[in-house]
Amino acid sequence: MRLDDYPMEPRFAATVLSSEEITEEGSEAEVRELVLEVDQHQFDFEVGQSIGVLVEGKGEFGKSVHHRLYTVADTPEPEGKPKITIAVRRCNYVDDYNGEQYIGVNSNYLCDRKPGDKITITGPFGMPFSVPEDKSANLLLIGLGTGIAPFRALVKHIYRDVGDWKGKVRLLYGAHSGLELLYMNNKRDDFTNYYDETTFAAFKALSPRPNWADPIAWDFAIEDRADEIWKMLSDEHTFVYVAGQKAIRDALDKLFSEMCESDAVWAKTKAALVKEGRWVELVY
Q1: Cα dihedral: 111, 213, 224, 173 (round 10)
Q2: How far apart are CA 58 and CA 36, in angstroms?
Q3: Which of 70, 102, 146, 199 is the most exposed place for a label (fewest CB within 10 A)?
Q4: What are phi and psi of 27, to 5 degrees?
């Protein structure tokens, strides 16, 4: 589904309750966690859904409004007005062809908001990552950058709301450096809440040193767990959820092909996962 396919109506007013930078000092990336309160009560959302944020201004193809989606990064609160947590990375980039700098309209707008500011939202949309009814199912969660946000909410939901989870929950998270790890850094490590759970484990993949811009070292992150991961991928009770930038697709295909030592075997395995609804992606 393309972004243009998502409706911009109805629209809801929301108030910024807080805005906190969650990347550590010294990081080249700025990622902020915003908590929003919807001004009216009729805005029900679930774990894994996204909201749209509308920003007035000159948009693509002559449009007057910029519309971008952000995944809900926490579970709903049962009482009061709806409160929505999102993680936003400030995006600016230089075009390789013409050298011009482009500013991410919505990301900069949100990162500049202060408590008390009003914004306009739409949604909620979709729910790509649903919890299987079978509590013995295995979950392999793979996130890149802000792609970890929906998994923060999903893992919290599994252990706080669902409970008694018997299947394996494995979180594989990639970032360019330790300073850019979200919810898994010294400033905030929400996933430590689940390290005592016998079914949960998380491991990090970073760019290898000394070249910061090198691809994420997924293979080094799972080298001690490769057999376990492949057994999970081969298990008909395993669900794989992937979130992050589109580049993660090629990186994972390369990783898993090397793991099973065959492009053809991995292609067949992935095709079966997709066909059975056990491989779900949220990429942008």
Answers
A1: 20
A2: 25
A3: 102
A4: -70, 145
Say if residue 98's pLDDT is above 70.
Answer: no
Q: Measure Cα distances from 196 to 165, 172, 187, 210, 217 in Å.
A: 13, 17, 20, 34, 26
What tokens does 78 get? 């049962």
Give the lowest-confidence range in 55-59, 95-99, 125-129: 95-99
- The pLDDT score that the predictor gives to residue 229 is 92
d(CA 271, CA 108) in angstroms, rounded, equals 38
Look up residue 42 and give its two tokens: 């009729």
Q: Quick one: angle between helices 226-234 and 263-275, nearest 10?
A: 50
pTM for the whole structure = 0.78
Distances (CA, A) of 136 to 159, 164, 169: 13, 9, 10
Structural domains of the chain sorted by starting position, each given as residue range(s) with its CATH number in brackets = 3-125 (2.40.30.10), 138-283 (3.40.50.80)
Dist CA 183 CA 18 (whole Å): 17
Asked if residue 128 has a cis previous peptide bond (ω within 30° of 0), the answer is no
pLDDT tens digits for range 248-266: 888 899 989 988 889 999 9
271 DSSP assignment? H
